[in-house]
């Protein structure tokens, strides 16, 4: 693709490399460091003048730092003469604070959408944005917002493995996961179902079965958009094991993975555990660069 460059943050390095190979374009990581007083220094290391610039940012861990560095990069890229900018934010942070749950709270995702709309001007691409109280993200991000899905990449990762499809069910841990469970079930041609979830605290989650499972089920593929504390997955796995399903596979789009989550998941003796590389992590085995690349091709 002519006249296109990819600029990423360090956390999106691997994804940016795969994307640059797929689109056959140059990529570079921004130069970034912290001044002694805590301020961010950022430099765009390649020529962006008159070019379409893809700014690919994985936002994880020190989220606020990543958000600010993306803002600096966006503005600098404009100032340096880019013709247009596509912001690719594979994991959209703050999407779970999508309402004023208590008087006086900031509705963080709305604030973020205003900042990104102001600085991006062209398209914003994200992957499986967590949508709960806001059902249509274009209401806050504008019409040039593209929400693509990682489920096709997950389905093809599963299909490439030797996998016994009989006696298997795809399970979504809560009602919101119906979109991912149904899509994955359809792609794999496996029956699917969703459970009911109640969150007591950030870490403590209770999952219940809504409808009875077919008696012959021996294997479950759990699918969710985010693993953060691992509480949802832990509770779902324990429930499925308690009703006699020994063989459990877990897949998710965004490995947010708060500090103790991997220990929690390791103790569950899963048959497989993998997420996409929207965020870097020890379990980001599923490459999503083609899905992002195809979305970019459709836009340009
Ligand atoms: C919530 O509704 C999401 O779809 C995920 O189920 C949730 O964010 C996972 O969080 P945790 O790993 O902390 O249970």
Structure overview:
- With 300 residues, the protein is α/β, with parallel strands linked by helices.
- The chain is 31% helix and 25% strand.
- The strands form 4 sheets. It has a 6-stranded parallel beta sheet with strand order 2-1-5-6-7-8, with helices on both faces. A 5-stranded parallel beta sheet has the order 10-9-13-14-15, sandwiched between helices.
- Strand 14, helix 8 and strand 15 form a beta-alpha-beta unit.
- Helix 5 packs parallel to helix 6.
- The termini are close together.
- The protein binds ribose-5-phosphate.
- Residues 173-174, 176, 205, 224-232 line the site of ribose-5-phosphate.
> Can you tell me the overall shape?
globular
pLDDT < 50 runs, ≥5 residues? none
Name the structural class: alpha/beta
Percent helix range:
25-40%
Radius of gyration from the CA trace? Answer: 20 Å
Largest sheet: 6 strands, parallel
Order of helices and strands: EHEEEEHEHEHEHEHEEEEHEHEH
Q: Which hetero ligands occur in this complex?
A: ribose-5-phosphate
Averaged pLDDT, please? 93
In DSSP terms (H or I, runs of 4 or more residues), the helix count works out at 9
Main-sheet strand order equals 2-1-5-6-7-8
Question: What distance separates the N and C termini?
Answer: 9 Å
Strand content: 15-25%
Number of strands: 15
């Amino acid at each position: 693709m002519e006249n296109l460059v990819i600029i990423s943050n360090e956390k999106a390095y691997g994804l940016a490399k795969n994307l640059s190979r797929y689109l056959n374009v140059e990529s570079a990581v921004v130069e970034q460091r912290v001044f002694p007083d805590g301020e961010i220094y950022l430099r765009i290391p390649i020529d962006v003048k008159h070019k379409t610039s893809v700014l690919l940012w994985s936002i994880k861990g020190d989220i606020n730092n990543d958000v600010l560095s993306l803002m600096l990069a966006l503005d600098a890229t404009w100032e340096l003469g880019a013709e247009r900018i596509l912001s690719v934010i594979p994991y959209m942070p703050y999407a779970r604070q999508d309402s004023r749950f208590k008087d006086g709270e900031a509705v963080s995702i709305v604030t973020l959408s205003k900042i990104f709309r102001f600085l991006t001007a062209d398209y914003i691409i994200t992957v499986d944005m967590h949508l709960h109280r806001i059902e249509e993200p274009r209401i806050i991000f504008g019409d040039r917002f593209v929400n693509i899905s990682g489920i096709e990449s997950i389905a093809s990762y599963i299909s490439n493995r030797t996998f016994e499809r009989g006696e298997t069910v795809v399970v979504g841990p809560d009602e919101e996961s119906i979109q991912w469970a149904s899509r994955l079930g359809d792609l794999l041609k496996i029956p699917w179902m969703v459970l009911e979830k109640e969150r007591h605290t950030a870490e403590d989650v209770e999952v219940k079965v809504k409808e009875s499972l077919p008696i012959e089920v021996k294997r479950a593929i759990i699918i969710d958009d985010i693993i953060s504390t691992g509480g949802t997955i832990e509770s779902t796995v324990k429930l499925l094991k308690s009703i006699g399903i020994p063989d459990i596979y877990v897949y998710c789009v965004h490995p947010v993975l708060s500090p103790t989550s991997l220990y929690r998941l390791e103790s569950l003796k899963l048959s497989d555990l993998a997420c996409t590389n929207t965020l870097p992590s020890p379990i980001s085995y599923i490459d999503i660069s083609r899905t992002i690349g195809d979305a970019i091709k459709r836009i340009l």
